[in-house]
Design brief:
Layout: E1 9-13, H1 16-26, E2 32-33, E3 39-42, E4 48-53, E5 63-69, H2 72-81, E6 90-91, E7 94-95, E8 101-102, E9 109-113, E10 119-124
Parallel strand pairs: 1-4, 5-10
Antiparallel strand pairs: 2-3, 3-4, 6-7, 8-9, 9-10
GO molecular function: lyase activity
Pfam family, one: Glyoxalase
Keywords: Lyase
Length: 126
């Protein structure tokens, strides 16, 4: 049947080179090349996420990757210095401060987008 031990996540990007630059250099992740022009992002344990190029890519309207961090404040500060822009929300169920940090409605979290428009987050580990 299905082997959940080998399951992985995947999402598309419109420009694999921009994705490689952003995820590898800006975020500092150790990427590897996957099959047929894809990129592999190692996650916890043996889990991986696969990024694949898609010419008619549409950005996800939900968070595709969450990165647990010790301090959202410090991480937002560091990533902002590297050029990452955090999303600012002012909706009744989703409010952030001017830096893009949400507190009090669940875990402390901040959302940002990759060059393809996919939504990512840094979330304070419990």
């Amino acid at each position: 049947m299905i082997n959940v031990k080998k399951a992985f996540s995947s999402f598309s990007v419109n420009d694999i080179q921009k994705a490689k630059e952003f995820y590898g250099k800006t975020l500092g992740l150790e990427l590897s090349s996957g099959p047929e022009g894809t990129l592999v992002v190692p996650l916890s344990g043996d889990t991986k996420a696969l990024m694949y190029p898609k010419p008619n890519h549409e950005p996800a309207t939900f968070t595709v990757l969450n990165f647990p961090v010790e301090s959202v404040e410090k991480t937002v500060e560091e990533l902002s210095r590297r050029g990452v822009q955090f999303e600012v929300y002012n909706e009744p169920s989703l409010k952030t401060d001017t830096r893009g940090i949400s507190r009090g409605n669940g875990p402390t979290i901040a959302w940002f987008k990759d060059p393809a428009g996919n939504i990512l987050s840094v979330v304070e580990a419990a």
